[in-house]
Amino acid sequence: MKLRCDYPLSDSVTHIVAENNSCGEVLEWLRGQKVRDSSRFELLDISWFTACMEAGKPVDSEIKHRLIVQQACSATSETCVSEASSLAADRVSQYACQRRTTLNNYNKKFTDAFEILAENLKMKNIEGLPCMGDKVKCVIEEIIEEGESSQAKEISNDERYKSFKLFTSVFGVGLKTTEKWYRMGFRTLEEVKAEKTLKLSRMQIAGFLHYEDIVSYVSKAEADAVSLLIKDTVCMFLPDALVTVTGGFRRGKKTGHDVDFLITNPGPEEEKELLHKVVDLWEKQGLLLYYDVIESTFEKEKRPSRKVDALDHFQKCFAILKLHQQRTGNSNSNISKESDKAEVKDWKAIRVDLVISPFEQYAYALLGWTGSRQFERDLRRYASRERKMMLDNHALYDKTKRTFLKAESEQEIFAHLGLDYIEPWERNA
Ligand code: DCT
Ligand code: MG
Fold it and tell me: Example GO biological process term (predicted)?
């Protein structure tokens, strides 16, 4: 028995899988498709599809999978699946900002494969994905039938791709450097480190020095500890400042490659010197392993950028902080011999991004720095294509009214765009 994915509805469809659609909605949709006898289909929940993927073949549907109790359906030599959510194209938006995507990724098998394919395109310097509907369909079908994508597998075993993943895992190493090192014949980080004539940037030197810590990901507990440290320090200089965790941790992720913070001061007080004061103090306290302060490049008259991936103009600091590990366990653990103390490393290097925004741009900065990248990209695409507006991390510009739209909260920005509000934890596109 084979599983084949078919859309739109064809005569060979035997199973209909719904994600976030009730049985009533599916039946209503079927009526709209002029289907007279819907009993010829099994109406199933996405859990059946997931069970099939796990088993690597179509499995018999159980009551728990069904949207309604159906008559037993005789197995055919070919089971044809129609995805109700993609059939009802008007229900599932192409824009991530009109979908609620939690961390519960039912399609991991598919998204992992597409991530590899997209990374491969990025390596080839292809801007944006070309329209390749048929190709996407082939990949999906192959994963359903074979359990994996041969193309994604081939790429992930490719020497160039493996070097790309390895080299870019070093803080400060991007595509350009990766390409250069690959062309020079390097394949491992040891080989790069051993080549003493290479000129590494300050960032890359720090990246190699703290590689193990940084590559091991930041936990939620570590992010909370860093958050406390940052709040304490910022409030010493600006007691009313708002310090908010953004990025993946605001979206509810349990780990991250860094911790992102947005800082703003509600009062009239200038916050320009804040970052420098914070950095100076941490340096005196021996907590800074690396930092780079980028000054603001914001010009008031400028309209929001047209680019969906544009960087913003806020003053910011990319840093590696020394986070001292909490002493836990029984009190005896604190009594250690002097010789032990020297050997035990009681801290971890944590990548931290600090962004300072003027108070009136705070809502836009918060929305922009919360991500995910795909969600942000789609918000901007949606604003310009569907609303004739320009959105970036500083402002929203209405091209029809020729005016900037003020917002004090993320909710107001969604309202300006005519979008239902999407909570941060539903922005994991
Ligand atoms: N961002 C963006 N466009 C970029 C870079 C960043 O929209 N070119 C936004 C989206 C997320 C946020 O800034 C923070 O970026 P990262 O820390 O890179 O992403 P993350 O979602 O926090 O992921 P991670 O958990 O890996 O840190
Ligand atoms: Mg992050």
Answer: double-strand break repair via nonhomologous end joining
